[in-house]
Amino acid sequence: MSEFATSPAPADVVRRQYLASAAGDLEALRATLAPDVEWTEMAGFPLAGTYRTPDGVTANVMEQLGKDWDGWTAHDDTYVVDGENVVVLARYTAVNKATSKPVDVRVAHHFVVRGGLIVRFEQFVDTALVRDAMTA
Known about the structure:
The chain has helices spanning 3-6, 10-23, 26-30, 54-68, 127-134; strands at 33-41, 49-52, 69-82, 85-96, 102-114, 117-125. By secondary structure, the chain is an alpha+beta fold.
């Protein structure tokens, strides 16, 4: 197994989460989350709220996105790391299944990583662009 695959470094843990998400590997994604994780989707986002536990996060966020969107992907590109804090600038791309409209929107994610696991996540995104793609 590679060093990256087991590295507890905050940026590596977060990167593994993005790779697992893009691959649709929810088991690998859950493995990056602490048992008491707090995962917050921004107010105004279709899945707004705070979810707890790895199963709660994947069931209420990733699985729901898969129901409403084709190819939902978070493309991570810039990492800013300060101790246990990791801020990632990224882009969401997908096509809404109901409207066939694409979304391509910038996003910022704030992760807190302790002991090699994500303990907190907060999303910042232009929710109006996401809502527009969902509106006929």
